[in-house]
Amino acid sequence: MSEGTDAAAQAIEAASETAGNWAKAGRHAGIAGAAIGVVAAGAAAGVAIERMTVGRGMRRRARLALDSAGPYGTLRGTPGTAYAEDGTELAYEVDEVDDAPAAKPGRGAKGKGAAGKDGAAGRGPGAAAAAQTAAQAALRKRLGAALRRRSPAPTVVFSHGYCLSQDSWHFQRAALRGAVRTVHWDQRSHGRSARGRAQADGSEPVTIDLLGRDLKAVLDATVPEGPIVLVGHSMGGMTVMALADQFPEFVAERVVAVALIGTSAGKLSEVAFGLPSLGVKAFHRLAPGLLKVLGAQSDMVERGRRATADLFAGIVKRYSFGTPQDVDPGVARFAERLIEATPIDVVAEFFPAFATHDKAASLVAYDTVPALVLAGEQDLITPADHSEAIAELLPAAELVRVSGAGHLVMLERPELVTEQLVSLVERAAAAPRRSRSARA
């Protein structure tokens, strides 16, 4: 057997083993395990070509080099802690106006990509950082002019998605910092926030409503007064909806604009995730229990993640980006690190909440403020038609469908997403001020 054929066989074998492990995790999980196995096999086929030409040691060294050289996720602000209703510590950071410390320079960040050459396709950390600096200067001038029309200026609050952290907004944070006050926080059990106390003691499962109350605690701690622009991606968008559902008067009084990116107001139990049609219903029925079993064997699962790093990376790329071949390798690795940092038991805790998520009715709280609804057209997690459904319920919304982009659109098309957020803040600044009674 040739080296290339052997590499491909090993990749497919890893996929089969992964599918088998999922199937064995639950007594009736065969169909769901097989469906997941199809995804794993597809990802394995995607990495097989790489295995034909690049040795395992070289691939590992490449990952380590990307981790050390990339500046992604290194931006830090003034830290603080908010406390959820169950006492869970929620970590946040604030970037004040004109407070724009530089990102930590990565070793070897000389403006060259992983392939060692300049250019858009191989743009490296140095070039990316320079582009962000230039963009920030332009945006500072543009936002400054807009925000002079509104006093006090709004604070922009970012809520991240499932299995991510506040660092997933790296590009938007880099571009906006210093020009407008921003708040970035980690949802419970994610990033630098503590594990949910109510989940640890079994007193309350994770729900989207609970996350909405967590956001309210963060807002009370970080923006006790003044206008707010809310930005949410995926689960973060659902969190923003849950805030409106439970605190409509607060939203009417304080929120002047909202951005819902790659998210859904409900019916997530119908999403196919790119699976074969025969496996979709079984997946949605069996996946929560399957994940719970895997969560109880977290040490074994985490070892498996490390042992099949290439396969895991292939799955992350498939579900994160619409055109993974065009994504900077450093950005792709950054997305992988964000997701792999979420323990499997946390994945299991949160997953059931999406099946019951239904917040379409709550969107009425945002129907009088400028809104941005943005989605990647190749999103397999929260398909673009879910964003269309949201936009139909928000008369003041601007719907943006990003051709070729996937679920992590803010990493895949960062300049476009930032440009849309700046436009939203400008619209909020130009909107006539309304009293609470007028907005209620």
- Helix content, binned percent: 40-55%
Rg: 22 Å
Q: What proportion of the residues form beta strands (DSSP E)?
A: 5-15%
The backbone outline, from C-alpha atoms, is globular
Q: How do the strands of the widest beta sheet line up side by side?
A: 1-2-4-3-5-6-7-8
Low-confidence blocks of residues: 1-5, 7-12, 22-56, 101-125, 436-440
CATH topology of the largest domain: Rossmann fold
Strand pairing plus helix content: what structural class?
alpha/beta
Number of separate structural domains: 2
The biggest beta sheet is recorded as: 8 strands, mixed
Distance between the termini: 71 Å
The CATH architecture category of the largest domain equals 3-Layer(aba) Sandwich
Q: Count helical runs.
A: 18
What's the β-strand tally?
A: 8
Query: SSE order, as H and E?
Result: HHHEEHEHEHHEHHEHHHHHEHEHHH
Please identify which CATH superfamily of the largest domain we are dealing with.
Alpha/Beta hydrolase fold, catalytic domain
Give structural attributes:
globular, Rossmann fold, 8 strands, 440 residues, disordered C terminus, eight-stranded mixed beta sheet, alpha/beta, 2 domains
